[in-house]
């Protein structure tokens, strides 16, 4: 079974409180999501392999570490996943970015894919699927299905907030996928929103409603 990692660093938890607050305006919401994405990028890359190289300091020659040639790819789920991309690229600027467009029907809660564009070498990369919200899990599962159909098999999932129902659904559908979260909330409400959650992530990021 995969692992579920709650990124409980105090700075992440502090910023998440302001992200949740309904009084936080679009500009601040966007900046906070960006900052939390950077902090979570630090956690999700904790186990990237290192190579040893020789480096000359002004004082001596020494062996030192660099991130190995393993290639990363970020896969934001449109729209709301876009809000986390720049923050992650601050720490991993060489990552390539692919996009998957999914929209959830408000009545059935079923996702429909309307767009996909991946780096040509996506199947050789360690991919991180990014979406602020993991609610029923339908969108994340659809995105992972789409990636697997195209030969990608090194996949992680990173979300700000998840409902237990969404985590279980992803684990049932894709038991090998590790999930990184800033918070695991209580439940879903009858409209498929995470409680307490943060509301509609896409609307809050882009100022729509
Ligand atoms: C939201 C969110 C996730 C999805 C989560 O997107 O950003 O992609 O819902 O719900 P699920 O786990 O039940 O599938 P939405 O479909 O509202 O699209 P948007 O990002 O364009 O607003
Ligand atoms: N999508 C959102 O944006 N928010 C939720 O609470 C659930 C799905």
TrEMBL record:
UniProt xrefs under InterPro entries: PRTase-like, PRTase_dom, Upp_B, UPRT, UPRTase/APRTase
Pathway(s) it belongs to: Pyrimidine metabolism; UMP biosynthesis via salvage pathway; UMP from uracil: step 1/1
Activation/inhibition comment: Allosterically activated by GTP.
GO BP terms in the entry: UMP salvage; uracil salvage
One term of GO molecular function: magnesium ion binding
Signal peptide start-end: none
Gene Ontology CC annotation, any one: cytoplasm
Its EC number(s): 2.4.2.9
Cofactor: Mg(2+)
UniProt keyword GTP-binding, yes or no: yes
Reactions performed catalytically: UMP + diphosphate = 5-phospho-alpha-D-ribose 1-diphosphate + uracil
Keywords for the protein's UniProt record, in alphabetical order: Allosteric enzyme, Glycosyltransferase, GTP-binding, Magnesium, Nucleotide-binding, Transferase
Cofactor note: Binds 1 Mg(2+) ion per subunit. The magnesium is bound as Mg-PRPP.
Binding-site residues for uracil, renumbered to this chain: 194, 199-201
Residues involved in 5-phospho-alpha-D-ribose 1-diphosphate binding: 79, 104, 131-139, 200
Phosphoribosyltransferase domain boundaries: 7-208
Pfam families registered for this protein in UniProt: UPRTase
Role description: Catalyzes the conversion of uracil and 5-phospho-alpha-D-ribose 1-diphosphate (PRPP) to UMP and diphosphate.
Family: Belongs to the UPRTase family.
NCBIfam families named among the record's database cross-references: PRK00129.1 (NF001097), upp (TIGR01091)
Protein name: Uracil phosphoribosyltransferase
Source organism of the structure: Paenibacillus catalpae
Originating gene: upp
